[in-house]
Amino acid sequence: PSEPIRAVFYQDPSSPASATTPLGESIFTFFEGFGITSSVVVDSVYTVAIILVALLFYWLLTRIGNSPFGRVLKAIREDELVASSLGKDTRLFKIKAFMVGCALMGLGGILWLGASGFVNPLSFRPNITFYIFIALIIGGAGSNTGAVLGGAVFSALLFLLPQLINQNAGQFIERGVTPDTIVGALAPIASADLLPLVAYAVENMASLRFVVVGLLLIYLMQNRPEGLLGHRSEVASAVDLSERTSRPADARPATDGGETDE
């Protein structure tokens, strides 16, 4: 089906006029008693599914990061030569990390399909890759929480901010007085008239939103290059070494070369 969530409620998810499934009919009938339409029910279920998958991804990545495998990846990130000198096959670890990332991106693609209903090569233009990089830069690379926060901040600035400005500020500005060019918007500033500049900004917020994101990136690069939540203090060991007792005198050294820690 083109939309996995709609397949639960409709017999033919690709058709807007499709008949409902028995489960969908019972669910729609229940919520109609509260004045909630079927489209709202489907959108709400899809939103809940995305949140649950995001929480699952976060839990999985946190577990991986705290595992011996994740600690090796952190060591490779900080200094690959040191990790290699300690006997770790850095090439193999990077391949495994790439495979995990591809698997998660594939699952994310399923959710993308559920939202858009179709996928074509033009849906994944280079700007999508740059969007992801910018979100990670804002939140902080190497931090799962930072990745979530960066994605939320970036999405709010890029998609929600223009809508909010157009809905609220746009109704107080006459569209007829909006300048056509930036020069026409800046010229009245000499006479202390800021209304043309504000009107121009509101009218062209869809394009100026990238300027806002760029200014935020410049500020972060100069004042907080690690991002909002990047490079937080982490425990290097899987256990609290401060509470470990001294090594017994009759203890024997390890003979497996530390392979079990991988």
From TrEMBL:
Residue stretches spanning the membrane: 44-61, 97-118, 130-161
Q: Where is the composition biased (Basic and acidic residues)?
A: 241-250
Q: Which domain of life is it from?
A: Archaea
Location in or out of the cell: Cell membrane
Q: How does it sit in the membrane?
A: Multi-pass membrane protein
Identify the InterPro entries for this entry: ABC_transp_permease, LivM-like
Pfam families per the UniProt record, alphabetical: BPD_transp_2
Write the protein's name: Branched-chain amino acid ABC transporter permease
Q: Which organism is it from?
A: Salinirubrum litoreum
